[in-house]
Queue: 2 jobs
Job 1
Amino acid sequence: MIDLYAAGTSNGMRARMALEECGLPYTLHPVALDKGEHKSPEFLALNPNAQIPVIVDRDGPGGKPLTLSQSTAILIYCAEKSGKYLPKDGAARAAMWQALMSASTDITPMFGSVNAVVRAKEPHPPTAQMFKDRLRQYFKVWDERLAKQPYAAGSEVSIADFSLFAGYMRTSGALPELLEGLPNLTRWAKEIGARPAMQRALRF
Ligand SMILES: N[C@@H](CCC(=O)N[C@@H](CS)C(=O)NCC(=O)O)C(=O)O
C-alpha cells in the first residue's frame, strides 16, 4: 500500500495520475496548502522542502519503506514498479524522456511562473506576459507534434502523456486563452482526459 500526500495542483495531479494509471493501490491524504499543512513538522519529515506531492511506499524496493517527493520521480517510480507506460524500444524510450522532460520541466514550471507573477503583491504585467508567451509557444510546439503522432512520445501512451495532461489541465482552468486554436492538442487532451484512471486522478 502507498500513501499519497497531495493537493489538486499540477504536481499533485501528476502523482495521483501515476498511481491511478499504473493501478497501484494507494490512500490519498489531502494536504491543505492554504492552511499551511505542508509546513507542519509531520509533513516536513516527509519532505523538508515543504512541497507536495510525496508518496510513502510501505513495500518499496527490497521490501523496505520508501519516501519519495518530486512528481516526475513519482511518475517514473510508479511506471517502473508496475512495468507500464515506459516504451521498451531504445529510440521510443529516448523520445519519451524528451517528451516527459518538456512536459514536466518546461510546461509546469512556466505555468507556476505566470501564477507567481500574477499573484505577487506587486504584479508586473510585462513579466507575466513574457512567461505567458513562452508557455503558449510550448503548447504550440506540442500541437504541431501531436499533428504527426497520436501521443506525446509517439505511437503509444506513456508517462509523458500523463505529465503533459497535468500541465494542460491546470492551464485550461486558469489560462484557457493560451490553449485556443490548438486542435491537435485539444484532440489529444479529450482522449487522455476520458481515460477512467485520469478522471479518478483529477477528483481532489
Ligand atoms: N518539482 C516539484 C515541485 C513541487 C511543488 O512546487 N509543489 C507545490 C504545489 S504544485 C507546493 O507544494 N507548494 C507549496 C509551497 O511551495 O509553499 C514537483 O514536481 O513535485
Note: The two ends are 19 Å apart (CA to CA).
Job 2
Amino acid sequence: MPTHQSLSGSSDEDLLRRMVKSHAERYGDAFWKFFDAQVAPHLPPRPTVIDLGCGPGLFVRDLGLRYPDATLHGYDVTPAMIAHGRELPPTGATTTFAVHDVATQPLPHAAGTVDLVTMSSVLHVFDEPWPTLAEIRRVLAAGGIFLLHDWIRQPLATYLAYRRDVLGESDADCQRRGFRLFPVHNKYTTADWLWLLDHVGLPAAEHAQLRDSHRIFVCRPA
Ligand SMILES: C[S@@+](CC[C@H](N)C(=O)[O-])C[C@H]1O[C@@H](n2cnc3c(N)ncnc32)[C@H](O)[C@@H]1O
C-alpha cells in the first residue's frame, strides 16, 4: 500500500521534521477549543485513548499533559515516528508508543475498552478504510468517541495555493509534491466521509472545518 512518504517522495525523516514543525499550528487554539467543547465533556476522568498514525507523538504528549491520569497509546507504521514519541519527556499519563500497521493489523485492545480513538491525516491514505473503521468501532467503549480529522477535497488551484502559501512550499516543490499528492489529499468530500462513517456504524454527531484543507468529525458508535 502506498504511504505518504512513497507518494510524496519524502523520506521518513523529512515527514517527521515537517510533522514536528507544523504541530503547534495544526493543534493550536482552534483545535483545542473544538476538543474542549465537543470531546472533553464526554471523557471519563481516567480515559483510555489511542492515536492511530500518531506521527512524532506530540498530540499524545499534549493529551498526557491535559490528562495525567489517562492511559495513552500511540501507534504508527513508521519506526522513526515511534522512536521520536518514545524520547519525549514523560507527562504523568501512562503512555506507550508502538510500531503498528493500523491498515492491516487488528488493534491490540479488547472490545469496548477505549474511550477515545483519534486519527489525524492518516485514513485518506488507506486503499480500503473499512477494516480499520470496523476495528475502531470494535474497541470503542459505550459512549466512546472517534475523532477523525482528515483532508477534504479542494479544487486543484486552491490546493496548490495552500501548499505554496500555507505550507510554504517553493514552486518546484509544488510541482513535484503538489501534483503527486493532489489525488491522495483530495480523495474524499465531507459528504464522502459522512457516508463512510455512517456505513460503519460510527455516525458523526458533530463536524467542523478548523482549516481549509481538513474536516474534523466527532463520531459515536451507533
Ligand atoms: C501526515 S502524518 C500525521 C501524523 C499525526 N497524526 C499528526 O497529525 O501529526 C501520517 C502518519 O500516518 C502514519 N501511517 C501511514 N500509514 C499508516 C498505517 N498503515 N498504520 C499506521 N500508521 C500509518 C505515517 O507513518 C505518518 O506518521
Note: The longest helix spans residues 12-26.
